[in-house]
Task: inverse folding
């Protein structure tokens, strides 16, 4: 079938000038008009030749000698009539510039489910098809032109071969058969040549009308914001306004409904909040759909409906896991509000449950977590005691760790704990590793201790005067160093009778304000014990080895 012709360019020019305003001037004679008239003349000649052949075939059918010849002639007659109809249609399309397939409308039967879905998607698919119409039509025309040129070349080659055979043939009957074949290929060559002219004319017209890319992009962008963009902004504005007004209405209802003023009606409040949130989300989507419906933007309307249907279809299989999350949000799951939960080795207080739950640890810097409800469905919480600590230390506390580190807590966050040691160096632990070091907190009061040995020659005084005098000396030295108000208790007790000495445990309990001087006070304790021994004449033993001979 022939494509739309070239004279439609003149009609398009007139229509475009009429759209721009003012009367359209008469078109001047141009090469495209001359070419279009030539195509019409070629199509008319071909149609007249087809009519002559049809009349001849009809006469041959009426005088056919047998049934086989009659059937063959009727087949040829039907083919010629179809060719004539095609030529007439091409002539009308060339003359009018309008394809008949674009003008014809066909009635459809009652649509089924597939037809209804197709009809729903029709605006969107039509928009996509319209966006790619130009390139697709140009590619189709080029393919048709390539095939038409191939047919033209084959027709000319066949015609040249038949003419050469006819020139060398002397038999009259053979020359008559070759003449019939020559007529057939002459007709085909004419048809293919006419087809090539029409397609070349149409492609040339489209090439002249092609808009530069930047101009086309600018026009598309401008057209989008005048139509689709404006509708999209209005729909988004309606959705945002619905959310804002809905949240304000929910707040007013919270103040007015007695249920939200009761401290024990937790389940009812959560159920109302969940229903309110779902209703607000549905209202937001409906507001956007209503705006698109009123604006009659069926493309965006269809796109939004398709997205919602896809989400609903996907939610059909993913809904069961959300049931546990809904139970959790309603405070009916294994994790409850105002309870204690351990995450990553750290304790957290469940402050609020929701689609994003809020957890806190009051003893940590930045101790707040926001976790999605799905992350809490497999966890367990428990009630906590008011005197239960949330972390073993606080900022500025002095600690001793299991690895022997002594320092002050400079910073403690959910990720790390930084200690500043004597001298100013910093040592950093991951928070979970810091807890595994079993920190000893000295800032709540602490004890310094040392073990001190005296020779067995003082055994008679070991349980009486020696502990008393050593206690008095240690207490005096500590009080002189830090003041009486910082000293909680001083004790000296016989701890063990060692291999070479009587060992005493010297214990001093001090205020936590002195935690920074832990090492210095421990050294003071040892020095005081040595000085007391020197003053009292007590012998400090050292490890000895006694060798006994067999004869003795």
Result:
């Amino acid at each position: 079938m022939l494509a739309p012709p070239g004279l439609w360019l003149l009609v398009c020019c007139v229509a475009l000038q009429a759209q721009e305003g003012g009367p359209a001037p008469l078109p001047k004679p141009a090469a495209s008009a001359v070419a279009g008239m030539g195509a019409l003349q070629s199509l008319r000649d071909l149609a007249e030749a087809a009519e002559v052949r049809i009349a001849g075939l009809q006469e041959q059918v009426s005088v056919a000698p047998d049934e086989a010849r009659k059937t063959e002639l009727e087949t040829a007659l039907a083919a010629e009539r179809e060719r004539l109809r095609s030529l007439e249609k091409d002539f009308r399309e060339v003359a009018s510039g309008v394809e008949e397939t674009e003008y014809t409308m066909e009635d459809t039967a009652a649509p089924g489910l597939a037809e209804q879905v197709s009809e729903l998607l029709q605006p969107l698919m039509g928009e996509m098809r319209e966006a790619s119409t130009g390139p697709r039509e140009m590619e189709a025309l080029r393919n048709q032109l390539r095939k038409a040129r191939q047919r033209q070349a084959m027709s000319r080659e066949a015609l040249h071969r038949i003419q050469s055979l006819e020139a060398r043939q002397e038999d009259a009957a053979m020359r008559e058969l070759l003449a019939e074949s020559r007529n057939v290929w002459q007709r085909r060559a004419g048809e293919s040549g006419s087809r090539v002219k029409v397609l070349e004319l149409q492609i040339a017209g489209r090439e002249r009308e092609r808009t530069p890319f930047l101009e086309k992009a600018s026009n598309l962008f401008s057209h989008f914001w005048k139509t689709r963009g404006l509708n999209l902004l209005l729909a988004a504005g309606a959705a945002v306004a619905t959310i804002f007004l809905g949240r304000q209405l929910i707040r007013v209802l919270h103040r007015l409904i007695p249920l939200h003023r009761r401290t024990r009606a937790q389940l009812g409040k959560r159920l109302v909040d969940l229903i309110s949130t779902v209703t607000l989300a549905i209202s937001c989507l409906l507001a956007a759909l209503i705006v698109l419906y009123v604006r009659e933007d069926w493309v965006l309307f269809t796109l939004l409906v398709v997205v919602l249907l896809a989400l609903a279809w996907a939610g059909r299989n993913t809904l069961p896991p959300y049931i546990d999350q809904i139970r959790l949000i309603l405070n009916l799951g294994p994790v409850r509000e105002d309870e204690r939960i351990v995450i990553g080795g750290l304790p957290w207080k469940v402050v609020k449950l929701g689609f994003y739950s809020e957890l806190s640890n009051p003893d940590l810097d930045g101790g707040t977590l926001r976790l999605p409800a799905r992350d809490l469905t497999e966890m367990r919480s428990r009630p906590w005691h008011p005197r239960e600590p949330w972390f073993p230390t606080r900022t500025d506390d002095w600690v001793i760790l299991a690895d022997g580190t002594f320092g002050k807590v400079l910073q403690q966050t959910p990720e790390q704990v930084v200690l500043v040691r004597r001298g100013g160096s910093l040592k950093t632990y991951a928070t979970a590793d810091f807890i595994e070091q079993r920190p000893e907190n000295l800032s709540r009061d602490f004890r310094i201790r040392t073990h001190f040995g005296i020779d067995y020659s003082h055994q008679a005084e070991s349980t009486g005067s020696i502990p008393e005098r050593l206690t008095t000396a240690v207490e005096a030295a500590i009080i002189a160093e830090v003041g009486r108000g910082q000293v909680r208790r001083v004790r000296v007790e016989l701890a063990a009778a060692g291999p070479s000495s009587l060992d005493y445990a010297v214990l001093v309990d001090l205020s936590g304000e002195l935690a920074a001087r832990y090492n210095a006070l421990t050294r003071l304790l040892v020095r005081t014990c040595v000085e007391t021994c020197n003053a009292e004449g007590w012998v400090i033993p050292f490890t000895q080895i006694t060798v006994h001979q067999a004869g003795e």
